[in-house]
């Protein structure tokens, strides 16, 4: 049986290597995973308390529109509830957008290099990805504007960008939007939004009222620590959300995920603590890299893309044997780089100790 034509040659997404798999393969008892930009502090304790309320509802389907979570999140963001759509992770909202607005022969403009699911979903729908190289690890918005044609339906922008962690700033985005035709959607994927501390970062949600072309994506998988629950969301004009709901699976956000997200959203003190710990951890790793003279991109996420000066796969395997899982830049388009998630203080120290051994560096 043959697959659909658009799937021929399409690669399978390769996530960060699972912690359990590494333990089994290498016979290690102590392994730390700094590969998938997960929150090393887990989630708010309030999540586990709230899940007790779902014990008697496990046989029931969830409410498809997530009304309780919708109301709370709308209040948190300052938007109308009708402007929200939930997904099984924000990845599913990416899929919904492509399924709703892309047809065979259409084009989607995106960066090269960025989160790969934009390209994958474009190709699955029979569209053509138009990739514009990054400039110093940052989206080249002027180049992306020039790449828009009459066949362009969507522009994908990951901000902060994965895997570089770099951002585009408010003025740059507003200038770009002024050049984009009215019939082209601009999707701002802000999975790492809560980690940003740069004051020039754009407040995209505030732009929605005057720019119905925008779709803003966010997630509970990162700073909220709910990656296992798989829940993310999009914020867009009500007319856009109406169209997206036509392709949304009826029960895509499960009951436990909705309850967990509701509790996590209500604990902003936990979010602030994670933000501060990430900022401290970022400085902890950056200062050592600077001392070693290893270049790295100025990240506004919870990860760093650093240049080892050696083949990435070689360093990745060395760390793996020592029980430290990171992401090899070879799979991300940076053949001498590693992407490392910022862990807790102890994890960061272990990463630096093991990296020093792999690279023949000294630690004072």
Automatic annotation (TrEMBL):
Enzyme Commission numbers on file: 2.6.1.9
SUPFAM superfamilies found in the cross-reference section: PLP-dependent transferases (SSF53383)
UniProt-recorded Gene Ontology molecular function terms: histidinol-phosphate transaminase activity; pyridoxal phosphate binding
A GO BP annotation: L-histidine biosynthetic process
Gene3D superfamilies linked to this entry: Aspartate Aminotransferase, domain 1, Type I PLP-dependent aspartate aminotransferase-like (Major domain)
Domain of life of the organism encoding this protein: Bacteria
Cofactor(s) for this UniProt protein: pyridoxal 5'-phosphate
Subunit structure: Homodimer.
UniProt name for this protein: Histidinol-phosphate aminotransferase
Organism: Melghirimyces profundicolus
Gene name as annotated: hisC
């Amino acid at each position: 049986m043959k697959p659909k034509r658009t799937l021929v040659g399409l690669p399978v997404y390769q996530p960060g290597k699972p912690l359990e798999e590494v333990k089994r393969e290498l016979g290690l008892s102590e392994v730390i995973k700094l590969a998938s930009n997960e929150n090393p502090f887990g989630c708010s304790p309030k999540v586990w308390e709230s899940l007790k309320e779902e014990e008697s509802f496990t046989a029931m389907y969830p409410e498809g529109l997530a009304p309780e979570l919708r109301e709370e999140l709308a209040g948190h963001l300052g938007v109308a509830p009708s402007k929200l759509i939930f997904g099984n992770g924000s990845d599913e909202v990416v899929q919904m957008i492509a399924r709703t607005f892309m047809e065979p022969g259409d084009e989607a403009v995106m960066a090269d290099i960025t989160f790969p699911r934009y390209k994958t979903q474009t190709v699955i729908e029979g569209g053509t990805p138009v990739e514009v190289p990054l400039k110093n690890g940052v989206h080249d918005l002027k180049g992306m504007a020039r790449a828009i044609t009459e066949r362009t339906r969507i522009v994908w922008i990951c901000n902060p960008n994965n895997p570089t962690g770099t951002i585009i700033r408010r003025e740059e985005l507003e200038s770009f939007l002024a050049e984009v035709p009215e019939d082209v959607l601009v999707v701002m994927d802000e999975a790492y939004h809560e980690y940003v501390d740069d004051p020039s970062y754009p407040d995209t949600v505030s732009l929605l009222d005057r720019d119905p072309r925008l779709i803003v994506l966010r997630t509970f998988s990162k700073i909220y620590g709910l990656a296992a629950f798989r829940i993310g969301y999009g914020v867009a004009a009500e007319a856009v959300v109406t169209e997206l709901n036509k392709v949304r699976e009826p029960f895509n956000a499960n009951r436990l995920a909705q309850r967990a997200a509701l509790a996590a959203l209500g604990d902003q003190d936990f979010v602030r603590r994670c933000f501060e710990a990430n900022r401290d951890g970022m400085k902890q790793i950056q200062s050592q890299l600077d001392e070693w003279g290893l270049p790295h991109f100025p990240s506004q996420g919870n990860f760093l893309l650093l240049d080892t000066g050696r083949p990435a796969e070689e360093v990745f395997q060395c760390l793996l044997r020592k029980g430290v899982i990171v992401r090899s830049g070879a799979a991300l388009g940076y053949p001498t780089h590693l992407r490392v998630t910022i862990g807790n203080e102890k994890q960061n120290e272990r990463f630096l100790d093991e990296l020093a051994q792999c690279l023949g560096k000294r630690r004072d």
